[in-house]
């Protein structure tokens, strides 16, 4: 402890401070890992899931003539879009190392609220506001309980799953709603119609995906969410308002579900209080298959639609291959576990 | 007048008394070495000054007036920056993203104000080369060596122009060459009127750059002497308790 500063080690070090050695140290200490464009994309999970989708697609063209028809592709993209929209929000929650199990029930609750407002004769705009407000309120409650009261996300949103469903049953009085007031035609076109041969809901998913691409790469909020997922304590010490950001993340997730509900009711043309039951599985599976890491800190905007596409493709393929629909959830669950396993293996490989 | 002054600061974590009535003051351009055995309360003292948590009793004064920090931002707003012992970095982000965490550079107009990657990469690069670190702004912290991580944490304190820089064992995990750069940085900070508190176990470092050395033993300050009036032997004795107080 009491040695002078001129240890042999120090002396050696002084001779080492030539520019040449500096560069050598530079090379040896840091493994050269700057990966450019294509290399970086190949390292991401969405890329490999995309490869899997193409593979399944190619196989299916041989299995069934119906697969590559315009009609079938139209259906696949439309069906996946509802889950994709919800998965965009779910990915944000998962990025903070959280989870939202209440999205399926929330879809039902938003749908019933929306339908009752429209049935009462209000315009589609008011219906939209009612739908999104319901979603935002539920997200706010989830977020506050998780961020400020510090309850586990799993518990809070599991409780909300039950409560939201129950409230949907109460206010709907257990009846189906299929009359949507003066704007019924417009409302059903928004959810079920298409433009330029592409379903409206796919347009919505596309725009939202582009928006989230910007959010995750360029917005301050996105950066903060990713930082919280990486190290919430460090984020807090850096002055990021961690609690407020977490509340906003749960609200964003719920609002995505609200948007999906608005489109979904218009598409199906009726609202029942059982809508969206077990959707949380598909939405979480889509996010995780798309590369969102349940440990937090990793998120891809493109992961949500790509993950949702794979989930829907599984469903569609089983159907066309004549395998009973009872097997669907089995394969969704299987792919969910495989995605997490893949992530684990890649992490171990990297070490 | 002192830049920052602690008066009778105590801190208890339940039954643990981490600090007992610590007084400490520091003037502009001054560097204090804060030494003590593991668990002596050094990090706790630094965290109180940095606004991580408030003292149980006692007060902090900045430029003569009492302040109450309820969060790290309050301390930062008062010109205090800190390098935490555990560095407090997000492994999943790049070096530049960590340097600018919580104070990102943005451009464009609301609501599409975007992170300005170029500006942040450039500025972070400048800070790293100022520290003579081979850290590259675009590298993920996950893939970095201890020294590079340290450079990221130190570079962060250079974003603003703080009055007081707290460094909690900044040289614990780094190479000899990098230690020399950190010590150079401390000298430069002093010469430009900044105050520095350096927590370190390395006696030669403290004697090279500090003007004073304060010793904590089990939460109590047992010595606060000018470097010229003490010796490494005496400080060692104070740390381990062979010398009661000085
Ligand atoms: N957040 C905390 N909760 C409980 N005890 C703590 C906490 N932080 C520090 N301590 C205790 O306070 C004492 C001083 O710790 P610390 O300031 O980290 O010491 P040093 O940095 O000098 O090694 C130790 O006994 C430690 O266990
Ligand atoms: Mg410590």
TrEMBL record, chain B:
Domain of life: Bacteria
Pfam families found in the cross-reference section: ABC_tran (PF00005)
UniProt keyword annotation of Nucleotide-binding present: yes
Alphabetical keyword list: ATP-binding, Nucleotide-binding
Molecular-function GO terms, alphabetical: ATP binding; ATP hydrolysis activity
InterPro entries, per database record: AAA+_ATPase, ABC_carbohydrate_import_ATPase, ABC_transporter-like_ATP-bd, P-loop_NTPase
PANTHER family in the record: CARBOHYDRATE TRANSPORT ATP-BINDING PROTEIN MG119-RELATED, SUGAR ABC TRANSPORTER ATP-BINDING PROTEIN
Protein name: Putative sugar ABC transporter, ATP-binding protein
């Amino acid at each position: 402890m009491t040695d002078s500063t001129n240890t042999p080690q120090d002396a050696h070090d002084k001779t080492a401070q030539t520019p040449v050695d500096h560069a050598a140290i530079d090379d040896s200490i840091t493994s050269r890992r700057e990966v450019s464009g294509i290399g970086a994309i190949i390292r991401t999970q969405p890329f490999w899931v995309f490869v899997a989708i193409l593979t399944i697609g190619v196989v299916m063209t041989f299995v069934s003539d119906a697969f590559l028809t315009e009609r079938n592709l139209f259906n696949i993209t439309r069906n996946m879009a509802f889950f994709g929209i919800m998965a965009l929000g779910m990915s944000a929650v998962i990025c903070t190392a959280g989870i939202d199990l209440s999205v399926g029930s929330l879809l039902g609750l938003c749908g019933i609220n929306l339908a009752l407002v429209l049935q009462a004769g209000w315009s589609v705009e008011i219906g939209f506001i009612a739908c999104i407000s319901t979603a935002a309120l539920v997200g706010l409650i989830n977020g506050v309980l998780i961020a400020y009261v510090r309850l586990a996300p799993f518990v809070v949103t599991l409780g909300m799953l039950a409560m939201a469903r129950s409230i949907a049953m109460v206010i709907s009085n257990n009846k189906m709603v299929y009359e949507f007031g003066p704007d019924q035609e417009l409302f059903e076109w928004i959810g079920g119609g298409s433009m330029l041969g592409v379903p409206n809901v796919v347009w919505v998913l596309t725009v939202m995906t582009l928006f989230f691409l910007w959010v995750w790469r360029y917005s301050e909020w996105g950066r903060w969410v990713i930082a919280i997922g990486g190290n919430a304590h460090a984020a807090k010490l850096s002055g990021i308002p961690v609690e407020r950001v977490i509340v906003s993340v749960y609200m964003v997730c719920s609002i995505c579900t609200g948007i999906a509900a608005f489109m979904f009711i218009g598409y199906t043309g009726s609202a029942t209080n059982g809508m969206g039951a077990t959707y949380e599985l598909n939405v979480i599976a889509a996010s995780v298959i798309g590369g969102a890491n349940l440990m937090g800190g990793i998120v891809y905007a493109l992961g949500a639609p790509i993950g949702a596409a794979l989930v829907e493709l599984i469903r569609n393929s089983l159907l066309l291959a004549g395998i009973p629909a009872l097997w669907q959830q089995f394969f969704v669950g299987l792919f969910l576990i495989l995605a997490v396993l893949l992530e684990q293996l890649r992490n171990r490989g990297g070490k | 007048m002192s830049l920052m002054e602690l008066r009778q600061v105590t801190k208890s974590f339940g039954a643990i008394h981490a600090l007992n009535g610590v007084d400490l003051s520091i003037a502009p351009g001054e560097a204090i070495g804060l030494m003590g055995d593991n668990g002596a309360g050094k990090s706790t003292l630094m965290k109180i000054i940095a606004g991580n948590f408030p003292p149980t009793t006692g007060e902090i004064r900045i430029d003569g007036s009492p302040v109450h920090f309820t969060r790290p931002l309050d301390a930062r707003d008062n010109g205090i920056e800190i390098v935490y012992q555990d560095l407090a970095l997000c492994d999943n982000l790049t070096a530049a993203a960590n340097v600018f965490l919580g104070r990102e550079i943005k451009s464009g107009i609301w609501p599409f104000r975007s992170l300005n990657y170029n500006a942040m990469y450039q500025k972070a690069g400048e800070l790293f080369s100022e520290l003579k670190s081979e850290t590259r702004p675009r590298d993920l912290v996950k893939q970095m060596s201890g020294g590079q991580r340290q450079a990221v944490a130190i570079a962060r304190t250079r974003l603003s122009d703080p009055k007081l820089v707290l460094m909690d064992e900044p040289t614990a995990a780094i190479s000899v060459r990098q230690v020399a750069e950190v010590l150079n940085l401390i000298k430069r900070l002093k010469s430009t009127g900044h105050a520095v508190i350096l927590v370190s176990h390395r006696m030669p470092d403290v004697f090279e750059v500090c003007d004073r050395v304060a010793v904590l033993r089990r939460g109590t300050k047992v010595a606060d002497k000018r470097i010229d009036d003490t010796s490494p032997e005496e400080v060692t004795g104070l740390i381990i308790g062979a010398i009661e107080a000085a």
